[in-house]
Specification:
about 150 residues; alpha+beta; Nuclear Transport Factor 2, Chain: A; four-stranded antiparallel β-sheet; elongated; signal
């Protein structure tokens, strides 16, 4: 039994040396077939929803975040003055985003600015539009600090 183990250990070492020697060879560029085979890349159409379509998502996610993480009863009761700030503000090759801003009425009676972006293919696992948002004054984990500036274009 011991001889069999020693024999397989030698074989594994020899196999490792052979693969190691093969990997020391010269690196070559991919040929045209390798470059174009199933590597088409993302196809962004710029089909991003309007600003109003993201408001229910923002209200729901805000309530979940406040109640789960901050033990707060705050909810967004409504939005006003919602408008687009920018659409694809950078190069056209980047992921399409629509930047919007508006005012959110909260259950504490305060009106706060909300900045958000709608991202093409930014939803769960790349399906559907994704939404990133920030309510000014309630960015408790400072993800978009200062004053939600990082949520703007």
């Amino acid at each position: 039994m011991r001889a069999l183990t020693l024999k397989s250990l030698r074989f594994a070492a020899l196999l490792g040396l052979m693969f190691g020697a093969l990997s020391l060879g010269e690196a070559k560029a991919a040929n045209p077939l390798e470059l174009n085979f199933w590597l088409s890349g993302p196809r962004y159409d710029g089909a991003v929803a309007d600003c109003d379509k993201a408001l229910p998502t923002i209200a729901t996610q805000f309530w979940e975040k406040e109640s789960s993480f901050w033990n707060s009863p705050l909810k967004i009761t409504g939005f006003s003055a919602v408008h687009e700030v920018a659409f694809r503000p950078w190069q056209s090759d980047n992921i399409p985003r629509r930047y919007c801003t508006g005012e959110a009425m909260l259950t504490d009676g305060k009106v706060r600015k909300v900045h958000f972006s709608i991202i093409e293919d930014g939803g769960f696992a790349g399906y559907g539009n994704g939404v990133e948002w920030c309510v000014v004054g309630l960015d408790r984990n400072w993800a978009y600090n200062p004053a939600c500036r990082a949520a703007k274009p």
